[in-house]
Amino acid sequence: MSSLSDPAVDAPVVLVQLSDSHLVAAADGAMFGLNTRRSLAQVVAQVLEEQPRIDLLVATGDLSQDGTLASYQAFAQATQVICAPTRWLPGNHDEPALMQQAAQGTQWLEPVADVGAWRVTLLDSTIAGSAAGHLADDQLQLLERALAEAPHKHHLVCLHHHPVAIGSQWIEPIGLRNAGALFELLARFPQARGVLWGHVHQEIDRHAHGLRLLASPSTGIQFLPGSEDFALDNRAPGYRWLRLMPDGQIETGVSRLANFTFTPDLDAAGY
């Protein structure tokens, strides 16, 4: 666990989420014809324009598409211009050992961070060799400890896989398989306020289980909401910002690149 000194407990915590960047080793690498390094750089530039103060930057998985050290180094280089404490968690395309190597000497993979009146816990929901997610016992125990040890804090939980159905039939089987265990645990702790995830490459904002449930766009390719089969959306890459208020409320929104035009190449390498 790490404690971040700013802001004060009576000030909002500004958190920025980047998700599903899907970088590859090659600088000109693309996903369905989109150069994911370039789109990440554009999103980061927009973050810098729109967020004068950031207290925590969270990357919610699939930083890499090919699981290479070079892709993690590229992600680190692209985001280092954001002068804020940073945390990463793995997605199903990531290679945890190489993430560890890239993060050596940093706190990027520390799973718990205290900032202002909030505690942010980052969980590993990946299953080796599978696109679906599961929270292993050690992850549930980590979360339980983080909640139990800080009853005076408001809590935000971050992971990669979606813990609720999102209305896209093709992606439901590769969500979080033991979401019930997550929500049963969170129900025991009234200080739990929200759950934030990636994986679905689209914006979701709901209230359920007494929690704010949030998913966010990719910094690259977007998935078409409500699709029965795999389908891409032509909406622009983006990021989510959150204002974690001292009273436990969450103010949040999504910002997408303006004047962005892209036609996916469905014959190119993809997801």
Would you give an account of this structure?
GO terms for molecular function: 3',5'-cyclic-AMP phosphodiesterase activity; metal ion binding. This is 3',5'-cyclic-AMP phosphodiesterase. With 271 residues, the chain is an alpha/beta fold. The protein has one domain: Metallo-dependent phosphatases (Purple Acid Phosphatase, chain A, domain 2, 4-Layer Sandwich), CATH 3.60.21. Helix content is 20%, strand content 26%. The strands form 4 sheets. A 7-stranded mixed sheet has the order 1-7-8-9-10-12-11, covered by helices on one side. The longest helix has 15 residues. The two termini are 34 Å apart.
Structure keywords:
alpha/beta, 271 residues, 5-stranded mixed β-sheet
